[in-house]
Amino acid sequence: MLKTVTLIAIMFIAGCASSKTYTPPQTVEGLRSLYTQLNRVSAITHNILVANSPICSKLKTYYGFIPMSLKEQGNEEQKKLVIKAFHLKKQPIVTYVDPKRAADKAGLRVGDVIISANDNRWSDTKSPDEFTKLLGEAQQSSHLRLGILRDQKKLTLDLTADMACDYSFILSDTNEHKAMARNSEIIVDFGAAKLLKRDDELAFFISHELAHILLGHTLPERGKELANYKMRNIMEKDADALGVRLMVRAGYDPAGAETALKSSDLIDSGPVTKFFNYHGPYMPVDKRIRYLRKVLSE
Ligand SMILES: [Zn+2]
Question: Considering the entire predicted model, what is its pTM?
Answer without folding.
Answer: 0.85
